[in-house]
Structures are given as C-alpha cells and as structure tokens.
Write a structure and sequence with these properties.
Layout: H1 3-28, E1 34-35, E2 40-41, H2 50-55, H3 57-68, H4 73-86, E3 91-92, E4 95-97, E5 103-105, E6 108-111, E7 117-121, H5 126-142, E8 147-152, H6 155-158, H7 168-181, E9 187-188, H8 191-199, H9 214-227, E10 241-249, H10 252-257, E11 265-271, E12 278-282, E13 285-286, E14 312-317, E15 325-330, H11 338-341, E16 346-351, H12 362-368, E17 373-379, H13 380-385
Parallel strand pairs: 8-9, 8-17, 15-16, 15-17
Antiparallel strand pairs: 1-2, 3-4, 4-5, 6-7, 10-11, 12-13, 12-14, 14-16
Helix pairs in contact: 5-7
C-alpha cells in the first residue's frame, strides 16, 4: 500500500468520526436559547413559510440556526478568537484587543436620520447625532430645574490610548457634541477626564465590559455634584471601604469577542456602612438594597448593581428624612453611580431604554415625580444606535 493511500485512509479515519459525531450531537442535543458565554439569545429552529422561502429569509434563519446550535459552540468560538489574534488581526467579530487586556467594540448598528439602521459599522450619522443633541438642548432650555447631562463614553472613546486603532470617528463624535452642547450649562464633557485617568493607569472602565468600574462611577458622581453646585458635599474616596466582591467578571466585550484567553475583571463595592438605611424598590418590588449579590453566581455580574435592568427604581431613606428628589433618566451606566447619589437625594431612576414604557417626556415625568433636580445619564453607543435622545421633550 503506497503512502498516498495510507494518508487518505488516515484522513478518513480521523475526520469521518468527527463529522458524524457532530451530526449526531446536533440531532440529539436540545436547542439552547441563550449563551451565557456570549451573553446573547441564540437562534432556535425557525418557522417555515413559503413567503420566507421565496424571500430568502428562511435560508438566512436556518443558516443562523445551524451556526448558533452547533455542538461545542462555546469552545469553538474561543478557538476562532485565538486564531484571529494569532494571525495578527488585532480583533475578532468587531471587538478590538488592546494593551493590558482591554477589549472594545468598534462596530455598531448606526442609526440614520431617515430611519435606516446600518449594522456592523464604525461610523455615526452626523445629522442623527445633531438631532439628538438639539433635543437635549431644547429640554435643558425649557426647564427651570437644575439639569445635568452626562453622556458616557464608549470604551473606544475613553481608552483610545489602549488600542492601535484610529480615533478619528471617536474624536469627530466628541467634537460634534461639544459643538452642539458646549454652551449648555449642565453638559458634562466627561471623556477627557476618563482618558486622563486611563492613561494614568487607573481602571475607570472594565477591561472586558462596556461599563465603567465603581471607581469610574465615583468620578461620575463627583462631576455630577459639581455640575449641581454641590462640590462641598462630595464624599471623599477615603470615606469608603472598598470591598472586592468578584475577581471573575467577564463582561459584554469579552462575550462578543470570543477572546477566552483575556483575564477577568474584578468588581468592587464602595461601602459606607449605612447601606441598610436606604429602601430600594424596582418596578414596585422591594430589593435587598443597592446590591443583589445573587448575580455574583451568574454570568451577568454587573446586574449586581440595583438588580439589573428595571423600568422604575426608587431610593429613599427608611427614616423618612426629607431630601431633594433627583429624577434620573438613564441606561445601565447609572446603576453603579446611584448608590453614591443616594447619599444626597431621594432617587427616581427611569429607564430610557425600556421597551415597555416611553420615558422620553422628561418634562411630564419630572412633574409627576416632583423633581428638584434632573439628570440624564446615557451612553454614546445608545446615542449613535437608537433614537431615544432624539425624542426627548
């Protein structure tokens, strides 16, 4: 038997069991609805219709189904991420790998002024963002309440120095917002501060997630109180006991990038010892307090803060002491800064990203909840990819 024939037999002996093994596994294993590793829903078996077949949509859906339900998907995603980096690409699936283990999304679903959504693109629609900024300015000009605006940077914005990737789009976005909002009294131009802290070696954003760390949230708290003219009331960092509650946090960027070799983040809580003084409710349900520790046993550990995503969260003193009310229109970045703000205000947090209720009528909700102060915390990713800011009134 010649060498070529032996090679062919060995090839068949190795690959046929693998192929059949995957096929059998695909047939026998139940479909998964969610991947904790990737932190996203997986495609389940699509419904067949003649209309979808004719349009080609069924072919797309069944292709996604096979890709999502493939046996051993999670380890194979990790192998792909490692291979992409080994080939010198510096990214995988639109997630950049930077120095010191920093990960950052660079591609987003860009929303255009005309309603189109362009997926997987590292740009923004200038007119859409201008409309959003002008809506913010109109609300600010139309209220007599102290109103502060904190548009949180993306990792790509605040940790630009960690990546060998052009910052032109990021810089242009920040410049446009300064042009439109620079003369608004309550506008907090925060990205320069966070860039400075990152370049100094402080971890103000998680390396594997798109949120700021508790240190980053503390800096936001200070900037917010300064914008309200309350600088003298800012609690010094030394007043808090910093407690590490997790050293195994893998965030959304890690999930999306498939770079399993990147080490996890740690999560800190900054405690004053008075946490049981506050009553926290979420959508009418009383929570354990500022922190829901059960999430430390799950993949989505950032939901530790305020029990994750809820439409309406309130924080009040249990002893009934009257304090000014701060109504905070927000996304998930606000969850980790709320415990700091709760030392000064009764809080009402309204989820601008809600799919159930439209909270864009800031004027009406401030009146409903008796606001003394108003705060907007929203990430630039959501400004670029949604139309929530554009509908503020």
């Amino acid at each position: 038997m010649n060498v070529k024939r032996i090679t062919e037999i060995l090839t068949l002996a190795v690959f046929l069991p693998v192929i059949f093994g995957f096929a059998i596994g695909f047939l026998l294993l139940p479909d998964r609805e969610f991947s904790e590793q990737e932190n996203r829903s997986l495609r389940t078996l699509p419904e067949f219709t003649l209309e979808k077949l004719a349009s080609g949509r069924f072919a797309e859906e069944i292709n996604d189904y096979f890709a999502d339900q493939f046996p051993l998907r999670d380890p194979l995603v990790g192998i792909k991420g490692l291979a992409e980096i080994a080939m010198g690409k510096g990214e995988n699936d639109g997630v950049l790998l930077g120095r010191d283990g920093y990960l950052a999304k660079r591609r987003f679903a860009m929303r255009c002024r005309d309603g189109r959504i362009l997926p997987d693109i590292d740009a923004f629609d200038e007119e859409h963002v201008r409309d959003a900024a002008r809506a913010i300015k109109r609300v600010s000009d139309g209220t007599e309440l102290p109103f502060s605006i904190f548009l949180t940077g993306r990792t790509l914005d605040v940790a630009a120095s960690k990546f060998s990737y052009p910052s032109a789009y990021s810089d242009a976005l920040l410049s446009l917002l300064r042009e439109e909002l620079g003369d608004v009294e309550g506008y907090i131009d925060s990205v320069p501060l966070y860039r400075e802290k990152t370049e100094a070696g402080e971890e103000v954003y998680y390396r594997t997630d798109h949120h700021w760390t508790t240190l980053g949230a503390y800096y936001a708290y200070g900037e917010i109180l300064r914008s309200f003219g309350m600088e003298e009331e800012i609690l010094p960092a030394s007043a808090f006991e910093r407690v590490t509650v997790s050293d195994a946090f893998y965030g959304t960027s890690w999930s999306a990038g498939g770079m399993k070799f990147v080490s996890p983040d740690t999560i800190e809580l900054w405690l004053l010892g008075d946490e049981d003084r506050y009553e926290v409710t979420a959508d009418g349900r009383t929570l354990e307090g500022f922190y829901s520790y059960r999430y430390l046993e799950e993949k989505d550990q950032y939901s530790l803060f305020l029990d994750g995503t809820h439409d309406v969260v309130t924080v009040k003193r249990r002893d009934g002491v009257e304090r000014p009310t701060l109504v905070l229109f927000k996304d998930s970045f606000a969850n980790s800064v709320a415990p700091f703000l709760a030392r000064h205000f009764d809080l009402v947090l309204l989820n601008l990203s809600s799919v159930r209720t439209d909270y864009t009528n800031i004027t009406a909700y401030c009146e409903e909840y008796g606001a003394d102060y108003v705060l907007l915390i929203y990430t630039l990713e959501n400004v670029v990819t949604t139309n929530k800011m554009n509908g503020l009134r």
